[in-house]
Each structure stands twice: as structure tokens, then as C-alpha cells.
Design goal:
single chain; mainly beta; eight-stranded antiparallel sheet; 3 helices; 8 strands; elongated
Length: 194
């Protein structure tokens, strides 16, 4: 079943270009797919790359809709293969219900992209990133499953400070999920604990 979903995502994306969007009134459907080959002469970077590997891909399909002027819902299915991790298993990357009263106050609940660092909320937009590998000192792929999203709620807004400009705020709380068989657990068990 998971292979069929991935095939459907890939076929949808093959229609042309790096990113496709379909707008059916208030329903938006977007997707992305990336694949690569890793080979390293000095170390096994991200996977067993000294021998070279094509086990380096990711794909996503997201759907969002404005239910009213103030309410928005969305969800992204995500799949990746990174050596022994992922194996193209499809999971819910994020899913939310968002209410924005006005520009100064909004609240969202669900599995929400963590507003962390410069690219976390937008890292899955293929057209916005220069390469599949973001700088690993900041965006470590081993921590993606824990750092990309949290399950909880958040308050956000953009407040005018008159002549001083504007203040953007994000307050959030919740829990992160660390899978026992995920890439972060394997990284900690094999690299950090040695």
C-alpha cells in the first residue's frame, strides 16, 4: 500500500517542474519529490555512502483548505528513505487546525511545524531550497523527526509597534515524538553513545 501511495505522489509530480500546485477554489494540493545518490571517500555521511547509495530520497503530498475566512486546516504525508531509516514508510508529517482572529492573534493546534531556525517551517518547499542537504551544523538530518514538528498548540501574531516597526511572535508548547526505530534513536545509539 505504501509503495502505491509513493508511486501516486511521484506520478503526480512528474507532470512537470519541481513543484506543482492545484487550486480548486479553497482546496490546495501541493507535492514534492527529491532523490539523490551519495558517495563519500572519507566517511559514511548520513548512510553507508563509502560504497555509494541511491537510498536517499524523500517525497511529500500536502493538502490545505480555508474553511472560513478565519479557519484553515492542513495535512502533509511524508516519506523518505535514508539508508536503513525510513524505507519509504508514509507518515503524517504535520496536520493542523488554525484560527486567525486578526493579524495580531492566531492559534493553531495539532502536529505543527516547529518555528525553529530559518528554514524549518518552509524546508519542504522544493522551490525554496537550494539543495536537498541543508547545512548540517544547523539542520541535522538525524534530528528531523523530532525537530520538524511538535504535537500541541501555538499562539502567533504580528503586532504593530508604531514607528518602531513590527513584532512577530510565536509561542508554542507540546510534545515531540522520537521513534525508537527512527533515525534519531539510531544516531544516538550508534554515534553519540560510542
Amino acid at each position: 500500500m505504501q509503495k502505491r501511495i509513493m508511486l501516486a505522489i511521484i506520478l503526480m509530480m512528474a507532470g512537470g517542474g519541481a513543484a506543482q500546485a492545484f487550486d480548486m477554489e479553497d482546496l490546495e494540493i501541493h507535492g514534492f519529490a527529491s532523490t539523490g545518490y551519495l558517495r563519500s571517500t572519507q566517511n559514511n555521511y548520513l548512510l553507508l555512502s563509502k560504497e555509494g547509495s541511491f537510498e536517499f530520497n524523500e517525497a511529500g503530498l500536502n493538502v490545505a483548505s480555508s474553511l472560513t475566512d478565519n479557519f484553515r486546516v492542513g495535512m502533509q504525508l511524508f516519506s523518505r528513505d535514508q539508508g536503513e531509516v525510513g524505507n519509504n514508510e508514509v507518515s503524517v508529517d504535520w496536520a493542523f487546525l488554525d484560527y486567525q482572529q486578526n493579524e495580531a492573534f492566531g492559534i493553531h493546534v495539532g502536529r505543527i511545524k516547529t518555528p525553529l531556525e530559518l528554514a524549518n517551517e518552509t524546508r519542504d518547499y522544493d522551490m525554496l531550497r537550494a539543495s536537498i542537504l541543508l547545512p548540517q551544523g544547523t539542520y541535522n538530518e538525524y534530528y528531523r523527526e523530532a525537530a520538524a514538528a511538535y504535537q500541541g498548540a501555538g499562539l502567533y501574531g504580528n503586532v504593530s509597534l508604531a514607528s518602531a516597526g513590527r513584532l512577530r511572535y510565536d509561542l508554542y508548547g507540546g510534545a515531540i515524538e522520537v521513534k525508537t526505530d527512527g533515525i534519531m534513536s539510531k544516531y544516538i545509539a550508534t554515534v553519540v553513545m560510542e
